[in-house]
């Protein structure tokens, strides 16, 4: 009969194998009865005509079983940290769920195992509230009854940076090891597709197996398959073909359990799992089903077709197929059997932009610069990196949660970028102090240009400097004497100091002035404009220019303020005009830097662009603006044309947070 069932199922598309059994299906099947060994007791009733096709299918569920199938049940919960409720609401629920879980594990030795979603974030969040029970958690982890890690959080693999995925795995392993050991399985049950390098990353971390659901293509027709990365790394992937909830909400009676178990086995049959079939007993934010050990003991005593057992995914791996597995190479982004929710790639686009800005600041600027400068920033960067990993959770970066969640995610990204920028600027200051500035003449201002790429490159940078001449007649000098072109963008006046004080208040400040330095600027000139409201005007600059008698200037200020102690004085310090320019750079070594010096000389850029009417072009590209504001872009070398680019389309959104 097992062979007949296999043939019958092959007539249907394998993608139909995981159709959901409804409550009505279960009720009808139970009403018809299931006897010992799963025999269909409908046969004991008087015949009432030929069975309906629906009845025949149900009978097949009850009768067609391979001999002694093991149903390996893994109790678990899938814990979205924030989604249709904010983090604090879910953590409140989490504490109750884990409290109950620890109680079940402590009082029932037959409840052998619980999988805490392959991530450590949930247990971390729990221990933030219940710190005193960490030894108890460690006891269950060490005993193999509670699985944590290897990830810190279940991330979206496409919408966070590759480095964030690496940090995720590193943070998860580190925390799990302190709790007694990480699960040695790349558990990815609900990611919206998988990057091609995942097998490579897992292998580098010493993990030989993965567990996946969404994204697996229709070409994969087994419960286990080989998954190969572009570099040739291969892991064995356990395929949750019927989702991570195919064994959720198991019944409480023997008869109902048998119907449900046979349906689980039948659903997985087209994927040829062998004699051991995996049932994932859990779903989103679900507490443990404490009745299972007693119910399974009863079922195992009353029949011998199905052996029910509670166990871990690691134990299931020992029974899963390993030889002659089909091989899939590369990424997995198929919606053949599970909705891939591709619309999240553009949902809440500002979150994606914030992620890119923050990850770029941390990875390309803060960390490399801090390492080169030796500023010991690892500890201060730990918090933003934890925030980056938290935000990579698939319901966070995907933007498919409520507004409150999106606001929290955005705040974490902004904070991470802010800390990264502080670290980067500090490192640049340290490096700048070490640079040989002997090529600068007296009064000259230099610009330190850093190449964040790991390879040499030239290009264009934006700088803000005080120019030695009119902005339109400025170029820059490289250390080897090469002249580099510059293009001014705008000029703004620099107001360094601007305040209004009484004369006696000014007089109290003057004695503390012991040099021409005022903050980061030099005072190059001081004038006093007397009138109804006197003005003390300071001309300031980044370098000292000419002579300046500090003591004489102080005496002049003391004289006028002493004569008018209750009068208002406007104190204003003006720096030289600040010019924002685009500057050509010479080739700079990877992670290297160079010093550029502005000079009063005009030069033609190496790559010269010309504008005629609505067309802007250089030797590579030609861009023409249409009447509607869109742009036709032509690659001159190949004559390839991209027509109507940068068109904005405005339309109604009939979707939801996922699209």
List the topology elements:
Layout: H1 2-10, H2 23-32, H3 53-63, E1 69-75, H4 87-107, E2 114-115, H5 121-129, H6 134-142, E3 146-147, H7 162-178, E4 186-188, H8 198-204, E5 209-212, E6 224-228, E7 234-239, H9 254-268, E8 276-281, H10 292-302, E9 306-310, H11 313-319, E10 327-329, H12 349-373, H13 378-391, H14 394-397, H15 403-434, E11 447-450, E12 457-465, E13 475-477, E14 483-484, E15 486-502, H16 503-509, E16 517-518, E17 521-529, E18 534-541, H17 550-563, E19 568-588, E20 593-599, E21 610-612, E22 615-617, E23 621-625, E24 631-635, E25 640-645
Parallel strand pairs: 1-8, 1-9, 2-3, 4-5, 5-7, 6-10, 18-19
Antiparallel strand pairs: 6-7, 11-20, 12-19, 13-14, 13-20, 15-19, 16-17, 17-18, 21-22, 22-23, 23-24, 24-25
As residue ranges, the low-confidence spans are: 1-65
CATH superfamily of the largest domain: Glycoside hydrolase 38, N terminal domain
Helix content: 25-40%
Strand content: 15-25%
Q: Report the top-level CATH class of the largest domain.
A: Alpha Beta
Apparent shape: elongated
């Amino acid at each position: 009969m097992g062979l007949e069932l296999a043939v019958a199922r092959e007539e249907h598309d394998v993608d139909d194998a995981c159709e959901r059994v409804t409550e009505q299906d279960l009720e009808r099947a139970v009403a018809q009865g299931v006897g010992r060994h799963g025999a269909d007791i409908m046969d004991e009733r008087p015949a009432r005509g030929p069975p309906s096709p629906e009845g025949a299918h149900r009978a097949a569920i009850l009768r067609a079983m391979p001999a002694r199938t093991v149903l390996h049940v893994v109790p678990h919960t899938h814990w979205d940290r924030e989604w249709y409720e904010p983090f604090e609401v879910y953590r409140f629920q989490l504490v109750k769920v884990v409290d109950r879980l620890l109680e079940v594990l402590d009082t029932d030795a037959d409840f052998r195992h619980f999988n805490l979603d392959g991530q450590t974030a949930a247990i971390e969040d729990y221990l933030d509230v219940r710190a005193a029970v960490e030894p108890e958690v460690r006891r269950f982890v060490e005993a193999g009854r509670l699985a944590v890690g290897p990830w810190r959080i279940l991330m979206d693999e496409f919408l966070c940076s590759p480095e964030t995925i690496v940090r995720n795995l590193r943070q998860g392993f580190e925390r799990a090891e302190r709790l007694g050991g990480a699960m040695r399985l790349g558990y990815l049950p609900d990611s919206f597709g998988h990057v091609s390098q995942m097998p490579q990353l897992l292998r580098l971390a010493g993990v030989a197996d993965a567990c996946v659901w969404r994204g697996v293509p229709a070409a994969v027709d087994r419960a286990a398959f080989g998954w190969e990365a572009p570099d040739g790394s291969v892991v064995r992937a356990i395929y949750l073909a019927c989702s991570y909830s195919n064994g959720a909400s198991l019944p409480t009676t023997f008869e109902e359990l048998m119907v449900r178990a046979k349906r689980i086995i039948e659903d997985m049959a087209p994927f040829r799992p062998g004699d051991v079939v995996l049932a994932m007993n859990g779903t989103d934010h679900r507490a443990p089903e404490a009745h299972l050990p007693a119910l399974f003991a009863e079922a195992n005593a009353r029949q011998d077709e199905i052996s029910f057992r509670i166990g871990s995914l690691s134990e299931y791996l020992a029974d899963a197929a390993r030889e002659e597995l089909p091989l899939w190479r590369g990424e997995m982004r198929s919606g053949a059997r599970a909705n891939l929710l591709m619309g999240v790639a553009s949902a809440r686009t500002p979150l994606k932009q914030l992620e890119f800005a923050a990850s770029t600041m941390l990875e390309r600027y803060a960390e490399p610069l801090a390492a080169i400068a030796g500023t010991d920033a690892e500890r201060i960067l730990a918090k933003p990196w934890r925030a980056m990993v938290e935000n990579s959770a698939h319901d966070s970066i995907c933007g498919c949660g409520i507004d409150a969640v999106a606001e929290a995610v955005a705040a974490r990204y902004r904070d991470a970028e802010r800390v990264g920028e502080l670290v980067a600027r500090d490192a640049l200051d340290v490096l700048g102090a070490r640079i040989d500035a002997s090529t600068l003449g007296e009064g000259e201002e230099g610009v330190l240009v850093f190449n964040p790429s790991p390879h040499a490159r030239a290009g264009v940078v934006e700088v803000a400097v005080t120019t030695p001449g009119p902005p339109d007649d400025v170029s820059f000098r490289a250390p080897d004497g090469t002249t580099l072109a510059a293009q001014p963008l705008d000029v703004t006046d620099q107001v360094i100091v601007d305040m209004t004080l009484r004369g006696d208040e000014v007089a109290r400040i003057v004695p503390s002035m012991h040099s021409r330095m005022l903050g980061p600027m030099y005072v190059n000139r001081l004038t006093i404009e007397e009138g109804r409201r006197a003005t003390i005007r300071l001309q300031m600059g980044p370098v000292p220019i000419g002579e300046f008698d500090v003591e004489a200037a102080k005496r002049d200020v003391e004289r006028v303020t002493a004569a008018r102690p209750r009068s208002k004085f406007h104190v204003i310090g003006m720096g030289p005009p600040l010019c924002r320019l685009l500057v050509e750079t010479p080739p700079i070594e990877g992670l290297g830097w160079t010093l550029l010096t502005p000079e009063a000389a005009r030069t033609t850029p190496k790559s010269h662009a010309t504008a005629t009417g609505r067309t802007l072009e250089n030797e590579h590209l030609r861009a023409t603006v249409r009447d509607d504001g869109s742009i036709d872009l032509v690659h001159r070398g190949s004559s390839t044309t991209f027509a109507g680019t940068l068109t904005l389309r405005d339309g109604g959104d009939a979707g939801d947070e996922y699209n």
